[in-house]
Design brief:
The protein is α+β, with helices and mostly antiparallel strands and 101 residues long. The protein contains three helices and three strands; from the N terminus they run αααβββ. The protein has a three-stranded antiparallel sheet with strand order 1-2-3, with no helix packed on it.
């Protein structure tokens, strides 16, 4: 997970290059991903989100209360604010990378 976060922060379009809010995972997002996350949080609170899809559009993909959305090859980032404190890594916000290629 640390390697994935470092990769995301080092992207040319990462917000981490312009600002440091102290929220490492959010800083690692691009402007598009951050705007999409904000829209997802408003429309589908506490679910898991596919940040490669525009959260404000009809194509937004989020989990339900019971299950994750379908995981596909090259889907990019999945984000959830609803991770238990005792989950591995102890992070409340998790960014997962399915594939970087």
């Amino acid at each position: 997970m640390a390697e994935d976060l470092a990769w995301a922060r080092d992207r040319a379009s990462s917000k981490a290059r312009a600002s440091h809010t102290g929220r490492d995972h959010e800083d690692a997002l691009t402007e598009f991903e951050f705007k999409s996350l904000s829209a997802y949080r408003e429309r589908f609170p506490m679910m898991a989100y596919s940040l490669t899809q525009n959260g404000a559009s009809s194509y937004a993909q989020s989990s339900s209360e019971d299950a994750l959305q379908t995981l596909i090859h090259n889907m990019g980032f999945l984000w959830s604010d609803n991770i238990p404190e005792d989950a591995e890594g102890g992070s409340r916000s998790v960014v997962s990378i399915v594939s970087r290629s």
